[in-house]
Amino acid sequence: MIVAHRGASDVLPENTLKAFHLAWLQNAEAIEADFHLTKDEQIVCIHDRDTFRTCGEKLIVAESTYAELSHLDASSFLKDDSSPQPIPLLSEVFKTIPNNKGIYIEIKCGPEIIPVLIKSILSSSLQKEQITIIAFDPKVIKAFKSSAPDIKAFWLYDVTMKELLSGYDLLEALRDIKADGLSSNNKSSQEFVSNIINAGFEYHSWTINDIKTAEKLLKWGAASITTDKPGYLKNSLLEIK
Length: 241
Hints:
Blueprint: E1 2-5, H1 17-25, E2 30-37, E3 43-45, H2 52-55, H3 66-69, H4 90-94, E4 102-107, H5 114-123, E5 131-135, H6 138-147, E6 152-157, H7 167-177, E7 181-184, H8 190-198, E8 202-205, H9 211-220, E9 225-227, H10 230-240
Parallel strand pairs: 1-2, 1-9, 2-4, 4-5, 5-6, 6-7, 7-8
Antiparallel strand pairs: 2-3
Helix pairs in contact: 6-7
């Protein structure tokens, strides 16, 4: 499975409807998108806690209303001739998803988003099999699984930012938070991947933009590859087959 990281973000503004539409045209099986909760409890698609990097104006998402955020241009950071792109609502992102495709919803804030998120999922036309929740904060995964145990949730684990836990400790943590799997940027340890899979969890990889690494991780058992270049990876893997 090829997952488009923030959409087709290698060529279009990340986390915009335009980038998601291109990801579908490039035959990605799923998109990955980042979400925060606004002051008026709207779920918006943006990576950072504030809007400065992508929009050029600084608003703190959690302290702003959707009406305030909706006037910003989420493509301004590219500094090219791209047409202005608004910060999308989660409901708008949902509407781009074809029947046989999926979405990885990365929660970038805290557990306060979960009741609103679950309500949004239930009111959408998507099936639960199309939705996967991901987060770096294990408390967020644990809180989500306690509220919606039938929707998959993966813990995001960065091996470059943290001391690598032993397989035992990591597996205990996954069991404690009731995660369905682990998604990691590990590129070097097949044993790391095997420990996760052999314990009954799914293993997923991010963010992989070269075909050799993607092919290696798939051989090791990764169930998905998240990439900024979905079209390139998809076509390259088909050529190898």
